[in-house]
Amino acid sequence: MRSTLVIGTSLLLALLGAAASAVASTSAFPSPSSPDAGGPPVKVTLAAKTVACTTGADPALRAAAFTGSMPAIAGTRRMQMRFVLQQRVGDTGTYKRIDVPGWGGWEKADPGRPGFVFTRRVDALVAPASYRAQVTFRWYDRKGHALRTTTRTSSPCLQPDPRPELVLGGLDIAAKGTDQAFYTVSVNNDGRSAAGPFTVTVTVDGTVLAPLTLGPLEAGARGQGTTAGVRCTPGSVVTVTVDAGGAVDESDEADDVVGRPCVVG
Q1: CB contact at 8 A, 254 and 238
Q2: Distance (Å, rounded) from C-alpha 257 to C-alpha 244?
Q3: DSSP structural state of residue 217
Q4: Cα distance between residue 187 and residue 179, in whole Å
Q5: Residue 16 burial (CB count, 10 A)
Q6: Cα–Cα distance for residue pair 166/242, rounded to 1 Å
Q7: What span, in angstroms and rounded, lies between the C-alpha atoms of 216 and 210?
Q8: Cβ-count burial of 191 within 10 angstroms (0-12 exposed, 13-18 middle, 19+ buried)?
Q9: Interval 190-218: pLDDT, tens
Q10: 83/96 Cα distance (integer angstroms)
């Protein structure tokens, strides 16, 4: 009779709010397809992999699944593995361990199996952040002595910032008589969610012109408006302030004030 490898059952864990203070909601989660139904033997390699990574503006859409796999080595009676979830907040910095209920224990294969595969999944991940799993593998002989222990780390699951991002798309200046001008401002939403209404101001030689109201803007959309006022002095800088009232929570607030040279068309 051909022996088969064991596929472990994964746990569904919900991270509520900040992942560091996660609360687990456990339930049965389907295992990967099992080779027990027949067919050729399944080759198992030693690995820790990110097998699913979903993103979205809605926290319910943000999830990751990690799979550890290990083949038996000479003298193996039983195999075990343990998962640790690691999180890196933002785009830079170091990964830190996240203590998630249910992730601290050792998962055990039935004795005498030629391979062991186990998957864990986390949902409602916070963003922006990256997540990965560190998996420790351990082999035991018939007397319960550890033959070998090693660790592998999965590739990261990146959860990008879901907020809108307002960016100045353009500034066109058209003369209106000898001392006045029209200022047409374009603003793009380069983020991943919609932005509500916001104001844009144009400052010319220290004078703030009548503000523009743009939006709402869906992700990837562009808004445009025109205000009129004193004509800028050639060679001076016209300052455009996007979301002057701070109404939109953006992924990057540092690029909201932009200076453009006075070029009158």
Answers
A1: no
A2: 9
A3: B
A4: 26
A5: 14
A6: 7
A7: 19
A8: buried
A9: 999 999 999 999 999 999 999 999 999 99
A10: 14
Measured distance CA(84)–CA(97) in Å, rounded: 7
- Can you tell me whether residue 250 is helix, strand or coil? coil
Q: Give the phi and the psi of residue 204 in degrees, each rounded to 5.
A: -120, 115
How many residues make up the chain in this entry?
265
pTM beyond 0.85: no
The secondary structure of residue 232, as a DSSP letter, is P
Given a cut of 60, whether residue 28 has pLDDT beyond it is no
Query: Would you call the peptide bond into 40 cis, given omega within 30 degrees of 0 as the criterion?
Result: no
Confidence of residue 143 (pLDDT cuts 50, 70, 90): very high
Position 120 confidence tier, pLDDT thresholds 50, 70, 90: very high
Burial zone of 147 (CB within 10 Å; 0-12 exposed, 13-18 middle, 19+ buried): middle
Cβ contacts of residue 108 below 8 Å, gap of 6+? Answer: 78, 79, 80
Helices (H) and strands (E) in the chain, counts: 0, 20
DSSP annotation string for 109-146:
PPTT-SEEEEEEEEES--SSEEEEEEEEEEEE-TTS-E
Residues 6+ apart with CB under 8 A from 220: 189, 190
The answer to whether residues 99 and 76 touch, using CB atoms and an 8 Å cutoff, is no
Nearest to 240 by CA among 166, 171, 164: 171
- Rounded Cα distance between 74 and 45, Å, is 15
Bond from prior residue into 162 cis (ω within 30 degrees of 0) = no
